[in-house]
Amino acid sequence: MKNFSKRVCLLLTIFFLFSFNSLFCESWFVCLGSFKIKQNAQNRVDELQKYNITCFIYETQTEGQLLYRVLFDESYDDRTAARTARNNLEKLDAMNKLGIKGLWICTAGREVSAEVLESEPELEEEPEIEPESEAESELEPEPEQESEPELEPEPEIEPETELDPIPEPEIENAQPVIHNEWTQPVSSIIPEEIQNCITQLPLNKKFQIEEIAIINFGTMKYSEVSNNLKEKLKLFTTDASLSKAVSLTIYKNELSEKAVGVLIAQGEAGQFSEADIEKEAEFLCDYQIRGYVLKSRLYTLPNGIYLFGTTEDGTIRIEMGAENFTFEEFNTFMNESYESGNPEIYPPLKDGLEFLPEVSESQRNFKSFTLNKVGKDYIELKNNQDWAWALYGHWCAKALFNHSGEEIRVSFYDLENADNAQKIYQMYMKSHSAAAQNADNHSEQVHETTGWYIKNPDGRELTFTKQEYIVAADADYYSTLDLPDLHELADDLKIW
Question: pTM (2 decimals)?
């Protein structure tokens, strides 16, 4: 395959920086507003320009929501300098005349294409709504988080043009692993024909899952996939958009500084072939995974191992990039990862999948499942509320469904114990009960627990607590789905 050596070398060079945000040097900016509609952001830019305050629009995705930030057209190398600039801007008469309050600072990679968006003529033609709350305060992490140093950009590493030969060119039939089936029943809402994207996941107690995404391309268009995830998928050889479904998982071992990225693609019978990769491999291995023999080609690179595998029937393609592994270490990883089929070593993954509803009469179809930790982007989306900060760093499993032609979601926030979940949820309810209660903002009984329903420009959301989880069922603001549909989804969850 053309440029295969360069592709896999690039994969191992940059994929395992654990966060794609770190691919570029981050600079600090002052943000003068964050909007859901681009025209509103452009209006803010135009208003500020009248006072000779030059800004640009920076597009970013937060929790699946596309936002348009208005950033002051000057970057700063550190947080302190950005705060000083923010304080100076807040003192300008223009801020009072325009009614702009609550400026905050944020980071943006130097890859930002927003510098050219200032003159972009094409704007979205959709009804304007009020911008997000301007009372957002600066996203300042707690003291232990503030001490985290800013990362300098990684030096550009030229990928190897050819794979270096090793003394033994081929090892036929690497040591087979013990055959074990996936032990946890998979919800029937996930079509059986794509369940291999879950049941073939490596399970290894030495490696923590950093993040996972499972996409069903039978119900989700490739264009709906977030730009962040698309960039990760493009690093692999397999064209994910041509698959029935894919899962992408990143594993990390902090102590050994090893990391593994795994792409599993499900296709039609015979869709995938070993011949898809023309580059001769150093190792030819047969791995016994769960119910299949994975015919694999392994390539050694200066910083790790790359696996390109296909099941004998051509229905499953697995690609792995393993950083800081020798062949022997990678073979051990494969053996250990398929010795067990019990996902209980990853509780947030196990519970998140276990709680999903079964197929129902509501014509609810599975689109995607993600698992990652709550980050600062979520806190920004929630206007820097105290309860949102309390969720920072905790696991969130989220499933997206097509419900009678419209999107509906459920999120499970793992707070580790029931007391912690109740304490944070009380903070959430207090923040909403402080406002006038009406049809769009009120308490709501969900089974035996008291939850809360809110409808605002962010959408419609029904929340409640159960065990150590805060659970949120939500739909878009302009959706025809409403409280009864959110109730139905909440009732169908297997968390009760």
Answer: 0.68
